[in-house]
Design brief:
Helices cover 23% and strands 41% of the residues. By secondary structure, it is an alpha+beta fold. It has 3 domains: 3-38, no CATH class; 41-139, Immunoglobulin-like; 146-176. The strands form 4 sheets. Strands 3-8-5-6 form a 4-stranded antiparallel β-sheet, with no helix packed on it. The longest helix is centred in the N-terminal third of the chain and has 26 residues, at 14-39. The protein is elongated, with a radius of gyration of 33 Å.
């Protein structure tokens, strides 16, 4: 029923041809999809930051270009990956935008694994959709009083010091 005879007299099964042809086509399609999927994302930024006990947060800012002037609702995506010292991904998230800066922050204790070195990688399907990136840490600011010279300061100098300088100046320039 499915057999033909070629010019050499050898019987060929047309069903076998069909299955082999479909298999080859499926393999080619899978290879094309796998290759295009791997090439679909380009790393545009990669930086290692150190998180210590004085680190308040880790951040990544992505500034998106205008994607489509006629449709401001069209956005571009960027993928943010944060990896620990062992290369394990601890954060993988996607941000979207057009003609804006999207700021993302992570708390070291809640979003990351505490202190250590972290590598932040930013990638996108079309790097022309991203104007700039910035990656870094924000350090905690120590709370304190008015400083070592006492009270409110003017240009970093305590008011008592300013009063003392004025008093000494008055005595030095005073005529008898």
């Amino acid at each position: 029923m499915f057999s033909d005879t070629n010019t050499d007299g050898i019987a060929e099964n047309s069903m076998v041809k069909y299955v082999v042809g479909a298999s080859v086509l499926a393999i080619i399609l899978a290879a094309v999809l796998a290759t295009s999927g791997a090439a679909a994302s380009t790393e545009i930024a990669n930086k290692t930051v150190t998180v210590d006990n004085d680190t308040q947060s880790v951040y990544a800012d992505v500034t998106f270009a205008t994607i489509n002037e006629s449709d401001m609702n069209e956005t571009a995506d960027a993928t943010l990956e944060v990896m620990n010292e062992n290369g394990t991904v601890v954060v993988n998230q996607t941000v979207s935008g057009t003609n804006e800066t999207v700021a993302t922050t992570w708390d070291p204790d809640n979003d990351l694994e505490g202190t250590g070195d972290y590598t932040i990688a930013i990638s996108t399907a079309n790097e022309s959709n991203v104007e700039s990136t910035e990656i870094g840490v924000v350090q905690k600011v120590a709370a304190g009083g008015g400083g070592g010279l006492g009270g409110t300061t003017i240009a970093g100098v305590g008011l008592p010091v300013i009063a003392l300088v004025l008093a000494v100046g008055w005595f030095v320039t005073k005529e008898d």
